[in-house]
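job 3f2a | input accepted
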Amino acid sequence: MNIFNILNQGQNIPIVYKCDLFSFPCVSTEQYIYMDIIAGQNGEFINIFPYIGEKESDKFIDIYVYVDNEIKRFIILPGYKLNEKDEEHFIHLIRNSYSKYHVNSELLKNIKTLYPDYNIGKLIQKDEYNVLFEMLYFTSYKSGIKEIVYKAELPHIAYDIDNYEYINLIGSTPESILDMPIKCLRYFETTEMSRCIRNASDRRIKRESYKTFSNRINKYNNISEFQWKYLEDLTKQFIWKRYFFTLQIVSEFLTKRIVFNITIIIIFCYRTHNAK
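job 3f2a | predicted structure (276 res):
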């Protein structure tokens, strides 16, 4: 059992079990024939066919996966989740590098209509359907930090967040989860850049770099990994200079204090000696 499921145990989230699938209308016979043909032509792949279904006026995402000569079916229904075993299998399949998504413009248009608050256009343009369908699943119920980060329009960070160390699993905002300002996090919202903040130490120095140079950074829409490295080097130099400057101030203060104390002692001894 992973930590996310442990945290979600007390929330009493309704579960869609395999036995419940029969209560959800299936695709038509013609669509089954179409899927069989396409899957047969692409036998070397895990073939994924998403549809929009409807049950008692409630719309849901109906996903059919052709894998190992079997058809797996998964339902994404708002307010519901899959059981732990099915969820792990589903995530494994949609993330698999051999998975091939069979979608059309009508489906994508319907998804945009169903989820108007999500900015999914960029994911569709880049054919990042693995990120898209994981996002649609984890935002369909109270899934914890994944729901929060996905809904903050940070899909690539949310997609990779399982690989992040020392994150706040009970945080309520992306800032509290990752200990970085939201404006700074947006500079790492790509597949490549999201990997640059997996380590807590990397997030710490990038946070300090943003804090130090935010006035300049905010003028740009994108900053490359090499540019961040340059900013981090400058930040480290700035931190060391600040440290030595502070040390110098303290040293001068202590020196003056010591001289002052010695002077007081000498005066005291002199007066005591004269008094005798």
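job 3f2a | Residues 41 and 179 are 47 Å apart (CA to CA).
job 3f2a | closed
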